[in-house]
Here is the input.
Amino acid sequence: MSESKGNVAFIGLGVMGYPMAGHLQAAGYSVTVYNRNPEKREKWVAEHQGKSAPTPAEAAKGASIVFACVGNDDDVRSIAYGDDGVFAGMQAGAIFVDHTTASATLARELEEAAKAKDMGFLDAPVSGGQAGAENGVLTVMVGGAQNTFDAAKDAMDSYARAVTLMGEAGAGQLTKMVNQICIAGLVQGLSEGMNFALRAGLDADTVVDVISKGAAGSWQMENRGRTMSRDEFEFGFAVDWMRKDLAICMDEANRNGARLPITALVDQLYAAVQAKGGGRWDTSSLMRNLTQD
Here is the structure.
């Protein structure tokens, strides 16, 4: 058996965190996981032969890097602070890497809290969805100090095909906001295009095959165009989570003066999907606003 690359912890075993932690274990790290649902963490241990802990603090003890991928700002604070939080269990010199899509304000707050304890911090939201996490090909956008990034990059490479330092703390989250802003407008345009193709009597799959090879091509078209035309949305990145992300984008835009008229419109179109009961549908379900009253 090869020697361990070191002890790390992973907090949060959702659709993203579960496979990400598994890739770390497979890459040779000794991983201890924490999840609020004990059955989920024990299932992960049985599948990946790692360890679990009853609190984030216990999971963080002895770990050189603590990773987290939870829901929102409040969720991150709940696992970071307090007697049971990761900061209580981490040692001086350890690094906290937050993969949650959260606010840049929180990232800067966590960096200051980590510095006060002589620890490192990186905000490192990801893109690539559940499939990217399962296949180990995520894109990671990172904010923080260069030396901290250098110390954590090899571990992040376990589940990513691109890990890039974007700037100081908060820059990773700001880059993820750009990502979500671009996706929002793109998915609405794709919805309108697919709906137009169907109403024009075209074969939607053939349309996608043809135009995806040209200037209109995108990840969304390649991966969602066909399922949209078949009215299939019970998978993928949920509308509820996209609205959370877009709220973060618009809040930041209010601070920096950026104008987001299309983003604001698409956010309301997602609200209409939620009103149809589609909060857990994939974000491509914007199509439902065009095909159903």
